[in-house]
Amino acid sequence: MTDNLRIDGDRLWRSLIDLAKIGGTEKGGVCRLALTDLDRQARDLFVAWCKQAGCAIAVDRMGNIFARRPGRDDSLAPVITGSHIDTQPTGGKFDGAYGVMAGLEVIRSLNAANYQTLRPIEVVVWTNEEGSRFAPAMTASGVFGGVFELDYALARKDIDGVTLGEALKTIGYAGDTPCGGRKVEACFEAHIEQGPILEAEGKTIGVVTGAQGQRWYEITLTGQEAHAGPTPMPRRRDALVGAARVIDEVNRIGFRHAPNACATVGMIQCHPNSRNTIPGRVFFTVDFRNPDDAVLARMDRELREFAIRTAAELKLELKLEQIWAFGATAFDRRLVEGVRKAAAKAGHGHRDIVSGAGHDSVYIARVAPTAMIFVPCKDGISHNEVEDATPEHIAAGAQVLLQAMVEAADRR
């Protein structure tokens, strides 16, 4: 009977479009930052849809939402799927939301076929995956996976000093269920690729074998504010000049360790930010990624050595802090093979791929067998309002997810 199970691609697409209306932008994207009122509205809609599908709802202390469809033996550990519904400030419709809606579509399709799996199935919304409001990213899945302590995560602050825990209470999603510490049979996450490889090769499904290691840094260079006119060049302690040199070196480090390295400065704050005052303090962030932990360590060393040398040459004070890191992750071989077989069975062109982005699955993989399914996105663009994917690819990924989940959920 499992060969006849089919998702409803039109229903899945409508759900994605309806969800995207909450926080929708003029350019067709979505701005729905974690734990804002818009996030609450999206959560409420998801919960309502899941209740209509007959699911029981649980919310843990990190605000993660679990929608549970019972199995024939409900005492067995569940097979879970899901992603996140918070976005970047200029985010798209599909990043994260696709994985959540694909999971809901799996449950709806099983209901339509009157098929009950042996194990229960759960669809999860993970809190604050993006990290754009509360750093670091993947905070709640990190608590679930034992990477972060609960108190540490709840104490993360946004730019206005609001803690993650306070924001959870404000929107009514501070649950009382423990975060983590329970058995999970298998975890799957469907996601757009957020890169150009699948589209360029004409492949429909990316069988994700693992994820790159990442390191995030916060750097502050402090010099001395002074008048832009009377202050001679040799006497200046210009923090922005120092930051510019380090930023350029970050880019060079990325190119030095090509083709697999990525190096990005994505945020910069200059003080006092006045056109006729020499900048006295500059704060900026650095994001390093590589699938080889040894190379990532070399990138780290090169950054630190250059920053120390630059600060000394320009008589600046340096504060360099690594605020977040995880090593390269390999996903569960049996589940990866299950995704590969499901793609082949559905007749979709597929290839193995390593994720260049961080995902909640990276942390869940520490406590449960995990795998991911990628589908193409237009021009490989994500974290952008023009982020796009085709209904056909969205449906194909959900069908592979359905088959892989049912196989895992029917296994004793």
The separation of the N and C termini measures 18 Å
Overall, the morphology is elongated
Largest sheet, strands/sense/barrel: 9 strands, mixed
CA-atom Rg in angstroms: 23 Å
Going by helix content, strand content and strand pairing, the class is: alpha+beta
Give the SSE order as H and E letters.
HHEEEHEHHHEHEEEHEEEEHEEHEHEH
Q: What's the helix count?
A: 12
What proportion strand? 15-25%
- Name the helicity range: 25-40%
Q: Classify the oligomer.
A: single chain
Question: Low-confidence parts, pLDDT < 50 over ≥5 residues?
Answer: none
Number of DSSP strand runs = 16
Overall average residue pLDDT: 97
Tell me about this structure:
With 412 residues, this protein is α+β, with helices and mostly antiparallel strands. 35% of the residues lie in helices and 21% in strands. The protein is built from 12 helices and 16 strands. The strands form 3 sheets. Strands 1, 2, 3, 4, 5, 6, 14, 15 and 16 form a 9-stranded mixed β-sheet that branches. Strands 7, 9, 10, 12 and 13 form a 5-stranded antiparallel β-sheet that branches. A two-stranded antiparallel sheet has the order 8-11. Strand 3, helix 3 and strand 4 form a beta-alpha-beta unit. Helix 1 crosses helix 12 and helix 10 packs across helix 12. The radius of gyration is 23 Å and the shape is elongated. The model has no long low-confidence stretch (mean pLDDT 97).
